[in-house]
Structures are given as C-alpha cells and as structure tokens.
Write a structure and sequence with these properties.
Number of helices of chain A: 12
Largest sheet of chain A: 2 strands, antiparallel
Oligomer: heterodimer
Structural class of chain B: alpha+beta
Distance between the termini of chain A: 52 Å
Number of strands of chain A: 2
Shape of chain A: globular
Radius of gyration of chain B: 27 Å
Number of domains of chain A: 1
CATH topology of one domain in chain B: Alpha-Beta Plaits
Strand order of the largest sheet of chain B: 2-3-5
Number of strands of chain B: 5
Radius of gyration of chain A: 21 Å
Order of helices and strands of chain B: HHEHEEHEEHHH
Helix content of chain B: 25-40%
Chain lengths: 349, 186
C-alpha cells in the first residue's frame, strides 16, 4: 500500500532534514546575535558601551536575555481571545522562518560523493513564494493584536496591516522590473546569472532603492516602526504580551530582518557569489563553504545597515508614511518598471 | 517679542526645497553623523573595576573617628543628631568607667550610635556640627543590602578600624580624609 514510499530517496530526506535543522538554527542564532548587535551598535552610536558584562565583550548577553524572557511571568489577559492570543506570536515566528526555505545559502557541497545544494527547495516560483510568505507575516501581528482586545494593540495591528499592504505594492512592482531582466523566478538561477555577469544592482539601482525602503517597512523597522510605536501605542501590537510570547514577536522581527537581508543580497548583490573570485577554479567544497561565508558577510552588512538606520532616522508620522508609500514609491516603482521595459525593448534583449 | 537671550534662533518656515523634499540627502547626512559617533571615545567609566576620582569634598558613608591611640572621639553630645535635617542619627550616652580610658577619650561616650542610611541625605552637617572631630563622611558609597533593617548602621558598622591594632584597615578607611582634616585645622 505504501510501496511508493520506497521510491523516495532516503538520503535526500535526511539531507534536507539536516539542512532545515541547520538553517532554522542559523536563523535563530543570527536573530539572537542581531539583538545583541542592535544594542551594542545603538550604544556606540550614542557614545555608550552597551551590554558588555555577560561573557567576553558581552557575547553571552542574548542567552541571558533569552533566559530572562523564559522565566518571566506569563500573562494572558482574561479579556483576550486565548487561542488567537497564543497563535499570534507563533504565526509571526513561523512565517518569518518559512521564507528561509527557498533562499540559496551557498553553492553546492560534496558530501560522501553526493552533491548537496545548500538550498532547501529550489522551487521555480522562488520570489513569489518569498513575497507571499513575507506578507503572511502580518497575520501574526494582526491576529495577536486583535486577540489582545486592547485598543493600543488593535491600533498597532491596523497600522501594520495597512502599512504592509501599502508598501507591498511598491515592493512587488520594483521586483517586476528585476524579473524582466532576469527572466526567471528561480532564486538559484538569479544568483548564477549574477555570478556569470554583473550583480543586479548595476542594472536596477532604483529598483534596489525602492526594495530597500519597502524592506524596512515590511520588517517594521524604524523609520517605519509605527505598529509598535512605543511613545504613542505603548508597544503597539505586543502591548499585552509578556514572557516568551513577547520574545517571539521581538525575535520574529529580527528573523524577518535577516531573511529580507538575505533576499536583498540574493536578488541584487549576487547572493552567494564571492566578489572578484572565479568560483570554478576552486574545488566544490571550498567554493561551497566560501560562498556561504560571502553570503553571510553580505547579509551582516545589511543587518548593520538596518540597525544603523534605526538609530539615525526618527519615526514617520502616519500620514507621511502613507504619502511616501502611495504618492512617491509606487509612481517611482512604476516608472522604474516602464523604464526597464523600454530599455529592454530598445536594446532587444 | 524680543528674545531673552542671544541664543534664540528664528524658526525657518520657508517651504522645503527640492533637495529637502527628496529626504535622502538629509538621511545620508544623518547616517554619516551617527557613523562618526561609533568611533568616538566613550566617556563611560567601567564602575566596579574603575572608579571616578572624587574631590576632597565628596560626602559618602559616615565613619566614627578614633584618635591616634585608638580611643573613640565621640562624647555623645548629640550635636550631630540636632544638626541632622533628616533625623537619621540616634544615640545613647554612657559614662566612662575607671579602666576604660584606653577605649574612650573623654569621660562620656556613646553607648549606642545609629545612623539610618536610608534617611541620611549625606549633607555633611553632622560632620560640621561635631566639636570633637568624631564623625566624618568618607568616600565609600553605594551600600547595598537585602533588608531595610541592615541599613540602620550601628556603632560597630560605623567605627573606623583601630589605628594601632589594624593600621592597614585604618589607612584604607581613612581614604583622603587626612587632607580634609588638615584643611579643617588650617
């Protein structure tokens, strides 16, 4: 009855499971250390030192934070909708992690004579998948905020929803221009194209700029962190949350940052391509490991940029946010799309 | 309205120029400023390892003084308690018995001397009021404890170590107080 199960390549299954475990773990660790980096960079920008007590240079600080969050009292307001209240942070975290499935983390590795691609699923609709999953992330925020039954939470949730809808349009349109050039939705192929030629940032500077701004908005990062505006909304959608559920929300934000940095690097900055190095001259495993390193370095530069901007630019007012989204970025993205189309038409590509 | 100081600046209410409307140049300028701050020298003093150097006038926790032979200076006159604006000082006097001359400098001494460190505002008026140079404010600060009761410092907590029996501890407790004693004398 289950004879078709025998046809499944067991090694493939193991390989993918290990890869999934590694990548989920990696996302968590990177998110943890991004919180640490955030605090240290913030401190340095403000002429302080930041947390430097837990372990050498404070590198155990994220662990201490995590332990603290776990041992905090768990408060579920009895006027909230309990099931949805618990579901919210779970969804936020799940959707944040889901997008990591299609990102090519590096070129191939050769283990026991098998070629292992460092990508969980090389689906042919990679970008669409990322796009879909990232926008699903707002459900975590909306459900959590609505279930809290608190006006501040609800305001935060509504803001998050309308903000993500507004900026998703510009994001999508800026991606269409990119797709017209690459001609594929498969992320691995986009990276290979960039490895052979130039990085896409050369062809799409305006598209990248729009994507960057929209990525900030999608991750709810300053200057677009209106959903959690501390001074107006007392924390916004996570006002009622405590303990590890709050931790999940905060964590999901950092995982989102990590993933959107990874997507940006993949789409515009050559993904796992090592700059100025011809990968074909290296052996497969060396190239594979180096490519992962190059990818991680590029991502960490973006993460630093996220943090750097947060401690520089103040928050937008809500009408300013909407005006920027609808009256500036969408026309700009449309112009970029048309210009790209016209350019391709004239150069007969 | 005429400005009160020469520091006031009129508000620029001109409409934004195109460069300002684009926002991006201003954001880049801001990013450059914050980036520059990353490499600035930090003024933080890493407290438990390093300590700020205090001026000689610093007022920390109190100490009850002894003379060179180790006899207590305090005569329980109560002037410090009267001077104390926070009413943190309590004391009980007792008469010196024959044979106790090596313990107390004068015929009267404080049998009980307590300072409530939670009430104390470290104004130093007790130090100024004392006619016998018996109470001083030291450089020690940040006392910490688990209960409120522990913050009522008794005579045993307050007395400076014996200068003859424990000279090292005495020197340490003295801090830069000799300088201050000298200042007061001159």
């Amino acid at each position: 009855m289950f004879h078709y199960l025998l046809n499944i390549d067991a090694f493939l299954l193991i390989e993918k499971l290990v890869l999934i475990a590694i990548i989920v773990g990696l996302c968590m660790v990177v998110a943890m250390y991004t919180t640490f980096a955030e605090r240290r960079v913030a401190a340095f920008i403000q002429d302080r030192l930041g947390p430097n007590r837990a372990g050498p240079f404070g590198i155990l600080q994220p662990l201490a934070d995590g332990v603290k969050l776990f041992f905090k009292e768990e408060i579920i307001p009895n006027f909230s909708s309990h099931f949805l209240f618990i579901l919210g942070p779970g969804l936020a975290m799940t959707f944040a992690l889901l997008a990591s499935a299609v990102i090519p983390w590096g070129s191939n590795l050769e283990i026991f004579g098998r070629t292992v691609p460092l990508q969980i699923a090389d689906v042919n609709i990679g970008i669409l998948y990322v796009f879909g999953v990232v926008s699903m992330g707002v459900y975590g925020i909306m459900i959590g905020s609505w279930a809290s039954n608190n006006k501040y939470s609800l305001m935060g949730g509504l803001r998050a929803a309308s903000q993500i809808i507004s900026y998703e349009l510009a994001l999508g349109i800026s991606l269409i221009a990119l797709l017209m050039i690459t001609g594929t939705l498969r992320l691995n192929e986009i990276v290979l194209q960039q490895q052979a030629g130039y990085w896409n940032i050369v062809y799409q500077p305006l598209g990248f700029f729009i994507y960057l701004i929209c990525a900030f908005a999608e991750c709810n990062r300053t200057p677009f962190d209106l959903p959690e505006a501390e001074n107006e909304l007392i924390g916004g959608y996570h006002t009622e949350y405590s303990s590890m559920k709050l931790g999940f929300y905060l964590f999901a934000e950092y995982v989102n940052m990590f993933i959107s940095s990874a997507v940006m690097v993949t789409l515009f900055f050559g993904g796992y391509d090592i700059p100025f190095v011809d990968e074909s001259t290296l052996s497969t495993n060396v190239a594979g490991i180096l490519s992962v390193l190059a990818f991680m370095i590029k991502i960490s530069l973006f993460l630093f940029f996220f943090i750097w901007v947060r401690w520089t630019v103040p928050r937008f007012r809500y009408d300013q946010l909407m005006r920027l989204g609808w009256k500036t970025l969408i026309p700009l993205a449309l112009f970029n799309m048309l210009a790209t189309g016209a350019w391709m038409l004239f150069t007969n590509k | 309205m005429t400005p009160f100081t020469n520091r006031s600046k009129p508000v620029d209410r001109r409409p934004m120029s195109l460069m300002e409307k684009i926002y991006v140049p201003a954001v880049v300028e801001g990013l450059a400023i914050t980036f520059g701050h990353i490499f600035r020298r930090k003024p933080t003093i890493q407290f438990p390892e390093k300590q700020r150097v205090f001026g000689t006038a610093f007022r920390g926790l109190h100490v009850l003084n002894r003379d060179e032979e180790g006899r207590e200076n305090c005569t329980a006159c109560g002037l410090c308690a009267v001077a104390c604006p926070a009413e943190a000082i309590t004391m009980e006097a007792a008469e010196r018995q024959p044979g106790e001359e090596n313990l107390y400098r004068e015929e009267k001494y404080a049998a009980r001397y307590e300072i409530n460190m939670l009430r104390c505002i470290f104004c130093g008026l007790c130090e100024e009021a004392c006619p016998k140079d018996a109470i001083y404010l030291t450089e020690t600060f940040t006392p910490s404890d688990y209960t409120r009761k522990q913050f009522i410092y008794t005579k045993e907590d307050l007395l400076i170590p014996h200068p003859v029996k424990e000279p090292e501890a005495y020197e340490k407790a003295l801090g830069n107080k000799p300088k201050r004693i000298k200042q007061k004398d001159s």
